[in-house]
């Protein structure tokens, strides 16, 4: 039986709100400091066609890896699946690799010379925030002994 503690969804909403606010404030301050334009929300802002091709090839590669990883891990003994073929791990790898490629392309081809610095700082901040959230057991919001999955 799957059970969660009574205020799980409220706590999750609180955690997501805090993380969203921290990221938004950090991005706003960094954009103003570096003089970088705000990108469109929910869109892919490619530097040029070369960047677009590289990014789509990378996405295709990771989709193939997720499908193959699923087939490989499904035939293994439960509990002995390869963690590096898990979808969550591959998605983090896709985001990290995609941001590195974006920073390289911005360094080489972007009109604003500070765009790549913003991308690197933004990615580093999100990575640190993610590590802190998991290392502190979600800032102590969730009691892991209560969650039963």
What's this entry about, in short?
The protein is mainly α. It has helices spanning 8-34, 49-74, 87-109, 115-135. The model has no long low-confidence stretch (mean pLDDT 88).
Low-confidence residue ranges = none
Cα gyration radius (Å): 19 Å
Largest sheet: none
- What amount of the residues lies in strands? under 5%
* Cα distance spanning the termini: 8 Å
Mean pLDDT, all residues: 88
Query: How many β-strand stretches?
Result: 0
Instruction: Spell out the helices and strands N to C.
Output: HHHH
Helix segment tally: 4
Percent of residues in helices: 55-70%
User: Tell me, what's the shape?
Assistant: flat
Q: What structural category arises from helix and sheet content? A: mainly alpha
Looking at this protein, list some descriptive labels.
149 residues, mainly alpha, 4 helices, flat
Describe this structure in words.
- This protein has 149 residues and is mostly helical.
- It has a domain at 58-149.
- The chain contains 4 helices and no strands.
- Helix 2 (49-74) runs antiparallel to helix 3 (87-109).
- The N and C termini lie close together (8 Å).
């Amino acid at each position: 039986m799957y059970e969660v503690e009574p205020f799980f969804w409220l706590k999750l909403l609180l955690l997501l709100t805090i993380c969203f606010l921290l990221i938004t404030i950090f991005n706003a301050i960094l954009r103003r400091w570096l003089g970088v334009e705000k990108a469109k929300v929910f869109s892919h802002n490619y530097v040029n066609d070369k960047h677009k091709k590289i990014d789509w090839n990378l996405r295709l590669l990771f989709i193939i890896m997720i499908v193959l990883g699923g087939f490989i891990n499904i035939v293994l003994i439960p509990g002995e699946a390869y963690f590096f073929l898990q979808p969550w791990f591959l998605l983090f790898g896709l985001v990290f690799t995609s941001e590195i490629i974006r920073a390289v392309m911005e360094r080489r081809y972007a009109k604003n010379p500070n765009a790549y610095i913003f991308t690197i700082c933004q990615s580093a901040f999100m990575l640190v925030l993610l590590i802190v959230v998991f290392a502190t057991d979600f800032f102590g919001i969730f009691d892991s002994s209560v969650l039963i999955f």
